[in-house]
Amino acid sequence: EEVSSRDIYRDLGRTSYEGDKVTVYVNGAEPEAGEYGHGFIIENKDTQKIGGNGTVVEVYEKDGSATVIVIKSYLGKVSDVVPAEDGEDAYVTLDTGLNYTTEAYDVDDTVVYTKGIDAEGDEVVMSMALADEVTVSVTRKSSNNSFVGSGTTYKWNETAGKSNDDLVVGEDYTLYLDSYGYVLDATGAENADTNYAVVLGK
User: Alpha carbon of 120 to those of 15, 59, 116, 198: distances in Å?
Assistant: First the structure.
């Protein structure tokens, strides 16, 4: 979830880290100037926040420095399954083009995955799990981009390509949830008043 610089400062026993004393990695990569997470510091009076719904933020201290690790989750669909052959491990390919070594999934499975960077600097899948699916009827939408479906309040994952604008009260939707219960996608509306595309991205 989203966490403030001040909260991290307090969790670390009121220790500040600035400049080259704090390193941020987002999905395994250090952000460049202008990118999300660049310039983040840990300080009592700082108002910066990092993370978001469905995003894990981990902070480690060592030798007078702090490392902030941000791990986002994304939704994807298995487009190909390649069995083990000639000593090579079985793997699946996502519709994003990324591969993941596993025998656990079938074509068209909808999955939640995290990303990282390998030794060659290429983007790779670090973990994968089947997305939780639930069908709900939307009864209320809130100004804070949460909504109520079949009596339960839901919030959007920060990587979701949709928002409350894509929902119609009274319509039924299949929600695809991450492991924390945040919504990565919602499908099923035929008459939504907004044109949208699916973007695959605690």
Answer: 34, 25, 11, 30
Q: Which residues make Cβ contacts (< 8 Å) with residue 62, sequence separation at least 6?
A: none
pLDDT at 188: 86
Q: What six digits make up the tokens of 160?
A: 């979701």
Nearest residue to 134 via CA among 163, 110, 114, 158: 110
By the 10 Å C-beta count (0-12 exposed, 13-18 middle, 19+ buried), 138 is classed as: buried
DSSP 27: T
Mean pLDDT of the chain: 92
What sign for the dihedral angle of Cα 27, 28, 34, 38? positive
Phi and psi (nearest 5°) for 121?
85, 10
pTM: 0.87
Of 44, 55, 52, 36, residue with least CA distance to 18 = 44
- The helix or strand, by DSSP H or E, that contains position 32, with its residue range, turns out to be none
Long-range contacts of 138-146 (CB under 8 A, 24+ apart): 138/167, 138/168, 138/169, 138/170, 138/171, 138/172, 138/173, 139/169, 139/170, 140/169, 141/167, 141/169
